[in-house]
Amino acid sequence: MRSHRVASPNGARDDVYYWLRDDTRTDPDVLSYLKAENQYTETQLAPIQPLIDGLYTEIVARLKQDDSTVPVRYRGYWYSIRFATGQEYPIVVRRADTPKHAPLAEDEILLDGNALASGLPFFQLGGYEISPDNRLLAYTEDTVGRRQYRLRIKDLSTGTLLPDVIENVDGGIAWADDNRTLLYVEKDPVTLLGRRIRSHRLGDTGGDALIYEEPDESFDLTVERSKSERYLLIASESTTSSEWRYTRTDDLTFDFKVVVPREEDHEYQLDHLDERFIIRTNWQALNFRLIEVPESRAADRTQWRDVMAHDPEVFIQDFELFRTFVAVSERSHGLMNIRVQRWGEAPFHLTADDPTYTMALGSNPELDTTLLRYVYTSLTTPGTTYEYDLADGSRVVLKREPVLGDFDPANYVSEFVWAPARDGERIPVSIVYRKGTPLNGTAPLYQYGYGSYGLSMEPGFSSSRLSILDRGFVYAMAHIRGGQELGRRWYDAGRLEQKWNTFNDFVDVTDHLVARGYCARDKVFAAGGSAGGLLMGVIANVAADRYAALVAHVPFVDIVTTMLDTSIPLTTLEYDEWGDPNEAAAYAYMLSYSPYDNIRPQPYPAMLVTTGLWDSQVQYYEPAKWVAKLRRHNTGSRALLLHVNLEAGHGGKSGRYEHMREVAREYGFVIALAEGASIGEAP
Length: 683
Description:
single chain, alpha+beta, 8-stranded mixed sheet, serine protease, Peptidase_S9_cat, AB_hydrolase_fold, protease
């Protein structure tokens, strides 16, 4: 074995599998190794391949193949996305608005993802923006999976692509009012963070002007138009700090001004309405508040006036502006709700129908309307798009996501329970199972968790999940610390020097569900992805006896090595989440839970680990090294499997149906083990 000494200011560690790192993704030895891993996984799963194939057929059969989204009106057109039967990628269409009672206009295809993806092993549409005069379409595409997008422009009057092509950009774009100039985010080619805002004038081959360059490598950039259409906005954001800039959409000098100068631990987001900014801010408000301030006095906090005051029990997540009202996504008691408030009046909440659920603001691009679009879903209710009319209080269902076959929500039961943590906290847990599933300690459990970056796990519907529920599984989503289900304090209690709470919470939820009879002690399965994969890695080391098998998607498992290497994409942005390992205390704390560094001789649960060769967020070599080291120390006989998608990145395979093959493999793995199958032996 080739050993590598990983140095740091606080010590050095030997890494015998470091040779698997290949930043070019072209080393023949590395590629041969990864292909051999795939072959080994295929061989081990061969006995259950008929089950996997059957699950894929079953899952796809529930999908409406010729589906489409609810049309959204914007600047005189109705925009929607549709899927054609048997095709993998979305088709973006629009139709011109017509007078009431007049025949509908014909759909105009703006982007056909299937045509754009033709002949490519991977394709993903980033974002798209229509020029203010509705004649040009700027869009971004990724053909590798690394989220380094290519910017193209299409003339909608002729259907032709303009010769302008810009590489290595972020997904977001913003047009200026001249319909000839747009702003985009140029990525750092190494860290892949948004580093510069440039302006591009159509047809200009002389180089794009630099508008703003972010000096701090822990910040990322985005660009957008305000909903009022008056301003172009640049956001600089780190994990715990924000700074926004603005200039008029008709100002081609792009003289951006700072809204509120950045300061440590002040996060804010904003939009514009009439002559004022509406700002979501955590200044003197741990769970955020919504304020309004005259645009010319935005930095003067004596001028800030509460629209929605801070509430220690309610976390303000997001907001949407309208001429006559504002709508807010907020979290209370672990669940996402929507609060609506007419300007100057008392707020009210929209109602929910399930014990555990989520509401989310839908697509609402127009200011001058009394109609609010929102999406409601639960573990038993497919995503449902509602339109609420503030003029008369009526609510209309615009669409409920179709589930083909014999699906009936009445056949499933959801619960929202609280599990005791070892330190006295209570952890919210969303649960779903098929009616009639015995809760007497005999059912298999599939438990999911994440618990990082303040990302809350939404208890939403999944038609593919029916395949495990119908086979007697109880499914549980553990809302552990590190997310924001219980507000900002829940996030702060699961990051930096309190990160162990995340891992302990997950295990404590497992123990509670076993003790309450939701599942059999020897049939507990768990899954997580990315930072949730780190969670799987930690519990594999410290609670291996609790789990029959683990599924870890694109797992972030070599945290210390990665955080010491600022050349790895996104690393510097992560210091406020995990800590800076160049500091002795942070290094020691991170090392205490790092999955790769804490592997030890013991019987490990069976594992299915997935990664993508072109992953820009968790490099493929982390899970590859992790699995190799696990096999070296595993004293048990349960198989440890690695599948490497050689043509994809962090999100797995592109395409509507190809992704379902990955889901079928995951479900086949846990179902077979729950039914007593033996999937190979660890080498």
